[in-house]
């Protein structure tokens, strides 16, 4: 007889009176419809549960069933190319069962239990297996080989191993006997509590960049594999566009895209676009390396809170196989608001702006799950977290932005005025920063060119100089500045429009290799140096501008295809020829 | 047959507490019968053991603790629906107020709806021609989109919404009869509701309009239900009868204020400016009900109207709305005072779905470039103007003076248009090119050279200045 019955209901928060049957953070089923929930606080008198689904029509007196385990993600082949909600229920299966709308109380297994996988078993009876060791592999998509690992809390000797062949996710492929003599049946999948980080053997220092093909990111504010970045910006500044661009082009092996409390149509767009786009490096569809988690803004708020953890757990699982995984979390503010909403229902004492006092610690726990690691099986993998932040009123001093800023090392501040002028990506070059530059400098010098960082610094100097000069220009106009300062302004325009601004819809410009980025910088700086020399010699600036070189360089991002680096030489010659001609006249 | 209880435990604002209710479910509907025999509707919002907190839609005035009888309906709030709702007028909680009797229900629907599965959505791509240059060219409305109008008190948002309804292809411009309009008024003045009714009549679409009216002197709790009822009706017509529904909701700010009032009477912890912490989720549960679903031919397009308190776009209501909706049309008081109609403030306005619904096959191949260039050049106008205000217009460089001229013409001829003027997209783009031709070719850095060659129109630019 189950004595655990609902006592009170307030929105998604339900309490049970006078019970000791539950444990903290345990997953429970609530009511006759078995809605999923999680225990979030308990005392002698009451156990409080947050329900992940709509509680309409729930009554006091309905039963609450314990499950004995915390809320877990099921990890196994079949996650890629799939789309889940915040608590890892497959949305396409829900559609098959329930139609176009998502009803409450759908209990559908996360992974397709019927699908057969071509499994290669890599161990034999008698082998000793350590935690995290790989015992079978199967091709999950044309791009990714899924490696099935011993759960991190288990080790022992193989008693029986199945033959190579076709298996379903829940079929036993290996039987393992642990040190105490108990036998464990290992299938193709395992479960892991989403709020716990999966163990690794060690954390390694950051050393490789995550190449995104976006000039302002790669060159100006690079992010490392295993790094963390935040993209804050008011509405309409292009957070989602930037995230889409990174998800499409970055050189991670696997992308986890979390739509956390965002628009339904945006997720549909990701689904459609990624299903059509071909990854230029592998020739496969982008979906073949993508897991989508969609908990749109109108889906239950508690599941929104969980979606971030579900995503990062799946990411860690693939990292443990030795893959580089990038998480796009859009948007972490919605997750923080879900925390606030639930905290309010629990009548906790609020801190800043109604957010709970534990907001900073939750944010740091999330971002700390990123890193470049050596997994238990000995492979190297990384989890990179890129989180969008939607500050209220585009005010960066609000708690979520401020606390996020403390725990990420890369900050791409989106700017409303740039977005208004349709300068995309609208990343402000003055207020953004990346702490990875130093960690990555060796990689850039070894792999791109020893002058890469030097060029970057010079470009950055031009922009800083411009922002200083603009203060004056705003007061007295540009015409009164001396020619050398006006040249700086003109070159800053070339850098802004020709280099930083990037067209996501242009076939070549949407992804630019590092090599081309460096050559573009070199070309711009070459013009700057030559022109500056002329200005110092007293040549009027108007004469230099009349050559049209600046406008030519602005369009070079379109005019030079990504595989024709030789064309840069002709630009050099054009610059030299045109400027020598002017210089000759002096 | 539900149970009936006599007497209440307490009454506080719109909330009453009922004790010793053995069987009650969350969000259940209740009917309260007063001493004088009139009845009111309510909804269970919180349950604590045998105590239930009930929200009374029509207000609690006149309610007594002893003689009120409460009856539980046994199901959550539903409204009766059939195709016959077209042409009818309801109050905020879905009761007919046009004196034509009850709706003969084909179906009862829960007004809370259920979230659309992202997998089942169809990405909206079909552009709606509104005949308004600034909207068609710069922030194109797409069928299945939610595109709010951010306005302020005293500006002409109602007129703009009426013009969109009148001219939009959705209102039967193509002769088809599968369109409908759902109009939800929340806390607006009687005149405003009347204005819309007159406009619908003039456009000859009154028998295709469903109206849900909660005027400013109606109970606030009912205001919270108004958009939910309206959207339930819209979803029903769109997805059961395959109609294209345009939902006009005004005024979202009044709705949010009602929500705040209700939240504080429940004793909830307030978030920013006293609005409840769940305002974002609540607004999302309205706005996200726009869209197109696979397997159905219908669509729900939303044009919510909100007045920004003190014209402040960072106020929580416009701010949170902007984060959920797919763009916004912002109205500007300066333009309004200069007599420009519609006073669309171009720079902060945006349509997120525009990029996939314009260009070849939809409007014209150069549309995206022209729009970008108009935006970018108008942004330069602002810089030139702020400089001119410091050093005077005479001192400006030649380029800046060109921008000033472009800005003037852009506002006077492109943004400004008559209430009855219906410009085709061809006309709008041609006008855009004439305006851009005021600037030298080298300033057009957002447009592909081949379009500049094809469309650059200096003669047209001259004729514009002449017209001025």
What can you tell me about this protein's structure?
- The complex is a heterodimer of chains A (586) and B (468).
- Chain A is of the alpha+beta class and 586 residues long.
- Chain A has 17 helices and 26 strands.
- Chain A is 35% helix and 22% strand.
- In chain A, the strands form 5 sheets. In chain A, strands 8, 18, 19, 20, 21, 22, 23, 24, 25 and 26 form a 10-stranded mixed β-sheet that branches. In chain A, strands 1-2-5-4-3-6 form a 6-stranded antiparallel β-sheet, with no helix packed on it.
- Chain A starts with 5 loop residues before the first strand and ends with a helix.
- In chain A, 52% of the residues are buried.
- In chain B, the strands form 4 sheets. Chain B has an 8-stranded mixed β-sheet with strand order 9-15-14-16-17-13-18-19, sandwiched between helices. A 7-stranded antiparallel β-sheet of chain B has the order 1-7-4-5-6-3-2, with no helix packed on it. In chain B, strands 8-10 form a two-stranded antiparallel ribbon.
- In chain B, strand 2 and strand 3 (15-18) form a beta hairpin.
- In chain B, helix 10 (367-391) crosses helix 12 (425-436) and helix 11 packs antiparallel against helix 12 (425-436).
- The longest helix of chain B is centred in the last third of the chain and has 25 residues, at 367-391.
- Chain B is elongated, with a radius of gyration of 25 Å.
- At the A-B interface, strand 1, helix 1, helix 4, helix 6 and helix 9 of A face strand 5, helix 6, helix 7 and helix 10 of B.
